[in-house]
Automatic annotation (TrEMBL):
Its main location: membrane. The keyword Amino-acid biosynthesis does not apply. Membrane-anchoring subunit of succinate dehydrogenase (SDH). The lineage of its organism: Bacteria, Pseudomonadati, Pseudomonadota, Gammaproteobacteria, Pseudomonadales. It is a multi-pass membrane protein. The keyword Heme applies. The chain crosses the membrane at residues 21-44, 64-83, 104-123. Part of an enzyme complex containing four subunits: a flavoprotein, an iron-sulfur protein, plus two membrane-anchoring proteins, SdhC and SdhD. The complex can form homotrimers. This is Succinate dehydrogenase cytochrome b556 subunit. Its cofactor is heme.
Length: 124
């Protein structure tokens, strides 16, 4: 049986709604947080192991690469937090319509950009 449905596998031409992008970013930020927790726990373990370990971690956190990693982890945390608050609000019945979902996604992106930029200013 042949299907007459068109098949579009070129991901560059598929137009997703803004709600899909916020959902995908929410999942990606969760994965980043999962991996980032392992990195941060290793640094905590190393710093609590001895005075030399603490000095090593302290010296390592002053490098630009470490600041970028910290900013990336903090950005993932902040985006995940803002998107999670949106989901909690939607659980109460607010913003469940198509238009409300689009408006909520725009608000999530706007608020996330502001707090991520503020976090970058704070770190550097």
């Amino acid at each position: 049986m042949k299907s007459q449905r068109p098949v579009n596998l070129d991901l560059r031409t598929i137009k997703l709604p803004i709600t899909a992008y916020t959902s995908i970013l929410h999942r990606i930020s969760g994965v980043i947080l999962f991996v980032g927790i392992a990195i941060m726990l290793y640094g905590l373990d190393l710093s609590l192991d001895s005075e030399e370990g603490f000095a090593t971690v302290k010296a390592g956190l002053t490098s630009p690469l470490a600041k970028f990693v910290i900013w990336a982890l903090l950005s993932a945390l902040l985006y995940h937090l803002v998107a999670g608050v949106r989901h909690l609000i939607m659980d109460t019945g607010i913003g469940e319509t198509l238009e409300g979902g689009k408006r909520g996604s725009k608000i999530v992106i706007a608020v996330s950009v502001v707090v991520i930029v503020l976090a970058g200013v704070w770190i550097w």
